[in-house]
Amino acid sequence: MQFQGTYFDGITSAGQTAQLTADARSVCVSWSGGEQVIGTQDIRVEAALGSVPRRVSWGADDYFISEDHTALDALAQFRGDRGLSFWVSRLEANFSGVAVAVMFTLATLVLFGLYGIPRITASIAHQLPLTVSAQMAQSTMTNLTPLLQESELTESRQQQLRLYFSEHERTDVPAVDVHFRRARSFVGPNALTLSGTTVVFTDAIVELLQNDQQLLAVFLHELGHARMRHVEQTLLQSAGWAVLLTFITGDIGGVGELALTLPFAIGQSAYTREFERQADAFAVAELQRLGIDPEVFAQALEELERSHEDEFDAESVDTEHSDASREVHRRLLEYLASHPITADRIAAIRGVPSS
Ligand SMILES: [Zn+2]
After folding, report:
1. Centre of ligand 1 from the C-alpha of residue 146, in Å
2. Are 86 and 76 contacting, i.e. CB atoms less than 8 angstroms apart?
3. What is the pLDDT of residues 196-222, one digit of tens each?
4. In degrees rounded to 5, what are phi and psi of residue 277?
5. Domain boundaries, the chain
6. CA–centroid distance, residue 273 to ligand 1 (Å)
7. What is the whole-number distance in angstroms between the Cα of residue 221 and the centre of ligand 1?
8. How far is 168 from 290, CA to CA, in rounded Å?
9. CATH code reported for the domain at 2-93
């Protein structure tokens, strides 16, 4: 057998047009400047990787490269080589086999993403030191500075609420920090959990909910998110998806962007709804422990729902935050602040027998 390729002397980078001739005993590579004769059993044919040119080497610095895959496969078989590379290239040549293998791999990875990642991230999130959560909250707060400005509530009102909340918090775990901020209009009356250590109330929610027990109920809902490390879990999940997508696509550059947008895109996904349900259940259980009727929580949600409906129209004409970096901050804030208030949630709270 005989086929064309390029000879490299292993010293200079330029190759020379060459020809490879082989029989059962010897392989001869010849080019314009000379030739190499090697025993057929001493050559090694590189495994096929798509249509990438493959190397024929013989344990020296010089080598031969060819794109003639048919000839290279024949040479490998000639040599009696039926190792892994032979079967890999056979499989690669067999499209349906490849398709089945790819589908199987993708299905496995997606199942791992849907069921494995949440379990692993929940476990890691609960083991994260609180100092890490505190740093996370600090950096989010810094990022959101353009949208969350100094509160206009009086210092005494802020202190009064902090004291009121902390008096109703369990004392066997470290207390969370409560911050008050004046938020851009689109956030409206809301409360946000930044991490396991930090909760933020907007001025608007404090002004809206006149009954402090309703504010306490909202605080306990946020405390539930904080105690269960929901923000940490969400971030770890998106990191998990980023790794998984990189693994699937092999494209780190493109995937980075996708992984950043994914948690926002699936913001209303099963994870989030489950986290809301858990935080509501936490708040209801805490209210019952404190001897407060969970009805105050249902009323707070109704009050919030009404105010968000009113603001919806004003929001759509707000073009103030249209530039790109503002948009990212806005989405981050909306994501952290989004507690889908649904009739289902209110019904679930009311469905709990009051103690
Ligand atoms: Zn929530």
Report:
1. 23
2. yes
3. 999 999 999 999 998 999 999 999 999
4. -60, -40
5. 2-93, 112-350
6. 9
7. 6
8. 7
9. 2.30.29.30
